[in-house]
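Exercise 7. Predict the structure of Nucleoside phosphorylase domain-containing protein from Punica granatum.
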Amino acid sequence: MAPPRGDASAAAEEAMLAQLEKRPVCTILIIIAMQTEALPVVNKFQLVEDPNTVFPEGVPWVRYHGVYKDLNINLIWPGKDPSLGVDSVGTVSASLVTYASIQALQPDLIINAGTAGGFKRCGY
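Solution. The predicted structure, encoded as tokens:
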């Protein structure tokens, strides 16, 4: 159980939150699990693949980045499973790549986008 907070602690926390609310959104992180879902966004915003990865060596994660209307856009795709050759989808992959991306890129806004594989069901 956490110790009770005094009024000074609560006031400091409120001041910090008020400051964060005034901070502009400059860096956006978009997480998309499947390559077929990521590429249209990459093309729309003319993002380029980062050859100098910000991620640990050996992970298949791919970062695309660029600037659109003064926003730094980072799109992360978890890549393909090296042994199976399919997109690395699922909760474990998503949580790992999201955590590492937040740590490396310090985004102001995070968007988790995708169709959860719904393209095939819709005939695309």
